[in-house]
């Protein structure tokens, strides 16, 4: 099946297609197709949605609203995944997308029921994708939802090629980077026969407490998730010395109980963060330490949140972000209004202090390891050891690689896998970069098992 997506091809990247931009001459709510609307669709409440689809707005090309493009929308195949799944699935079905696939490997936990509204108590333990798909299919007529109880990484290029659009509400940055790299590689490797179908818009939504973002990526054309990685800088870890000597915040006391007291006293053989008895033990320890240093604020739920690194998911924030994502999907699929993408491509939302939203254009980066063409500069001291360099990849906001393996031209510096090679290259870890013969301006290649790609860096020595 080949559907023509109304988006420019990679070749037209510099001069985005006029179809995406304003037609100021066009008055709102007029157009040749408008008159025929009532004649063709009188199916209850749905006619209003059809009215939007059949009515060119100020930003749409009236020529696109033909019976053919309307029929294409009916065939539009869309993929959704992740934690915002309930909201996204409901919104897509209500927007009359007919062919939806959903991927989620998780099973339903009782703690999901407060916000993941497609699930009931009797569903606890069942697969989320399956239950959600069944619920929405029963409720919304004419929608077909295929559930995949998998990780997104379980599928290959051929699987992803079948969709016209991907919406992700994933809860891990790792999974986002993976799907991003996959869609960019499909766009870049596509041959002529795929045409504009090779560009599969990626709509990404994410929330953290009262904050969230929605962004649209045209793989290989606009700024991708890897370009924007520094927007998700890892949270700074509290130094162990602070935890061990002078705690200042209640979280420091919890970390002390978690990291130091637990190891010293071993109250249970192995820490289970879901076992209330274990959490209570940590809470009591943390509370005693907090009282010693006069620090207020240690509670049971703070203890639980700190050790599990939890930021509570808030149902309403999820609803706002999922709605924004699905509206963009609808606009892209129907051309009914200008979507995020070529100009503004990133919408951030913050409800922490009152309400604030800001939409801007995140620029594509030439040195992006996924969609760029250049190696990325890596500032290092020649005196640092290879071990220090390896460790630094986890915390560098632009890299965030937990298990990096490093190669220089013709030379393996350190490989995490396989075990034999790891053992062979381990002695390099204690050597300095200078001792390893690395030079200013030299290129190194970094790989990580979590990502199907190579990261090119060019060393920039500094004193
Ligand atoms: Zn990129």
Automatic annotation (TrEMBL):
GO terms for molecular function: ATP binding; NEDD8 activating enzyme activity. Keywords: ATP-binding, Ligase, Nucleotide-binding, Ubl conjugation pathway. GO terms for biological process: protein neddylation. One of its GO terms (cellular component) is cytoplasm. It catalyses: ATP + [NEDD8 protein] + [E1 NEDD8-activating enzyme]-L-cysteine = AMP + diphosphate + [E1 NEDD8-activating enzyme]-S-[NEDD8 protein]-yl-L-cysteine. Gene3D superfamilies: NAD(P)-binding Rossmann-like Domain, Ubiquitin activating enzymes (Uba3). Chain: B, domain 2, Ubiquitin-like 2 activating enzyme e1b. Chain: B, domain 3. Pathway: Protein modification; protein neddylation. InterPro entries: E2-binding, ThiF/MoeB/HesA, ThiF_NAD_FAD-bd, Ub_act_enz_dom_a_sf, Uba3_N, Ubiquitin-activating_enz. Residues 378-462 form the E2 binding domain. Its EC number is 6.2.1.64. Belongs to the ubiquitin-activating E1 family. UBA3 subfamily. Catalytic subunit of the dimeric E1 enzyme, which activates NEDD8. PANTHER family: NEDD8-ACTIVATING ENZYME E1 CATALYTIC SUBUNIT, UBIQUITIN-ACTIVATING ENZYME E1. This is NEDD8-activating enzyme E1 catalytic subunit.
């Amino acid at each position: 099946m080949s559907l023509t997506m109304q988006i420019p091809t990679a070749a037209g990247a510099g001069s985005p297609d006029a179809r995406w931009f304003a037609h100021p001459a066009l008055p709102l709510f007029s157009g040749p197709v408008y008159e025929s609307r009532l004649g063709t669709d009188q199916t209850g409440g749905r006619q209003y949605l059809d009215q939007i689809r059949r009515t060119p707005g100020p930003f749409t090309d009236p020529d696109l609203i033909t019976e053919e493009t309307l029929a294409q929308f009916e065939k539009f195949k869309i993929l959704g995944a992740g934690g915002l799944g309930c909201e996204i699935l409901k919104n897509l079905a209500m927007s009359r997308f007919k062919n939806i696939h959903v991927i989620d490997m998780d099973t339903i936990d009782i703690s999901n029921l407060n916000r993941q509204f497609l699930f009931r108590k009797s569903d606890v333990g069942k697969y989320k994708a399956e239950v959600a798909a069944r619920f929405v299919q029963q409720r919304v007529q004419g929608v077909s939802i295929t559930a995949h109880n998998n990780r997104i990484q379980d599928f290959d290029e051929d699987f992803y090629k079948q969709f016209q659009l991907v919406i992700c509400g994933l809860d891990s940055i790792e999974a986002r980077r993976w799907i991003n790299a996959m869609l960019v590689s499909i766009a870049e490797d596509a041959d002529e026969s795929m045409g504009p179908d090779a560009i599969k818009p990626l709509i990404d939504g994410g929330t953290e407490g009262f904050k969230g973002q929605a962004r649209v990526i045209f793989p290989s054309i606009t700024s991708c998730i890897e370009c924007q990685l520094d927007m998700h800088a890892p949270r700074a870890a509290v130094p162990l010395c602070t935890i061990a000597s002078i705690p200042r915040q209640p979280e420091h006391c919890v970390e002390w109980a978690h990291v130091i007291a637990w190891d010293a006293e071993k109250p249970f053989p192995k820490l289970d963060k879901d076992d209330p008895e274990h959490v209570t033990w940590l809470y009591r320890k943390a509370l005693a330490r907090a009282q010693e240093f006069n620090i207020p604020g240690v509670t049971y739920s703070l203890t639980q949140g700190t050790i599990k690194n939890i930021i509570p998911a808030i149902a309403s924030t999820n609803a706002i972000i999922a709605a924004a994502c699905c509206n963009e999907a609808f606009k892209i699929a129907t051309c009914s209004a200008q979507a995020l993408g070529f100009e503004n491509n990133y919408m951030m939302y913050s409800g922490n202090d009152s309400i604030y939203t800001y939409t801007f254009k995140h620029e594509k980066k030439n040195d992006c390891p996924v969609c760029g063409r250049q190696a990325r500069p890596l500032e290092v001291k020649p005196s640092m050891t290879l071990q220090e360099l390896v460790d630094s990849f986890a915390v560098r906001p632009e890299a965030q690689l937990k298990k990096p393996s490093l190669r220089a031209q013709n030379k393996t510096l350190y490989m995490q896998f396989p075990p034999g090679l790891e053992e062979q290259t381990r002695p390099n870890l204690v050597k300095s970069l200078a001792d390893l013969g690395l030079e200013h301006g030299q290129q190194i290649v970094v790989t990580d098992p979590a990502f199907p790609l190579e990261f090119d860096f060019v060393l920039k020595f500094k004193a």
